Amino acid sequence: MSEDIHEVAARWHTAQLNDDMDWDGFTAWLEADPRHRLAYDEIALLDARIDDVLPELAQPIEMPSTPARRLPRWAIGSGIAAAAAVAIAVGIGFQTSRPEAPAAREFASAAGSTRTVQVADGVTATLGAGSRLSAAATGASMRLHGSAFFSIRHDPTRSVTVEVGGYRIRDVGTRFTVNAADGVLSLSVEEGKVALQLPGQSTETIISAGQEALARSGAVSLRPVRIASIASWRQGRFVYDQAPLSLVAADIARYTGQPVTIAGSAASRSFSGVLAPGDRAAMVSTLTQLTGLHADSDGQTVRLVDRTGG
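Structure (tokenized):
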């Protein structure tokens, strides 16, 4: 794989730290060539591995009397060669008596498509469009941005956790879907049970099969959910039953790869209905017809507002 592809992958990976990340461009680049996704996954894995061992490198160790050249953490300006140098340092240059930290992996789905990944033995995740997942090699700890459906085989020796939007989900063997945006989380369980911990709280709420949890503003509510409608986007449609409009807008934005926001009190309004996948204009048009919201656009971002100005 050419060095140029890795350089571009590194730039895209670092750009995700910025608020003005060009998700449209990133999606187009991922889809342009299968080698691009492979290069991106390699860069994300390398960066995660460096993060894992940084605390280890900070520990005092005996060094040779001859001054050794300091190997900095890779950066975009230094190119992929620096990344390789640090990979060597992590792998063999700084051996200590402690076991090597397990590598982490990062997965991303493009706009308009889902992606199913084998995170670890018995742990599978299907990413909703425009979502990202980072996971420890063991699959015991994951961090999600967006939406995903998880299938986790029961293993009494293992507890799996998923962090998303400040929320923490603990699972020992189940199938569930989660969607989070703007501080709001929806969690539906198809099989088994999961424990949900809200940001800044130590207690957990148990959600069982056939239940949906809706968490926002430091509170969580439970209600029954139709099993057949859980993660309906896997079957090519978006089915909502009293879903906060903030999550609906986030789904449209991630699916189309174009920004969609919702203003004021309209964000917390509930929506029930079905949206067919399409481009942003078509999905927003359907939503405004069903809700009475008005769509304002500045040429880049669509902003949904209440027709009365809310």
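Helices lie at 3-15, 23-32, 34-57, 79-93, 245-256, 280-291. The chain has three domains: 1-101, 103-227, 237-306.
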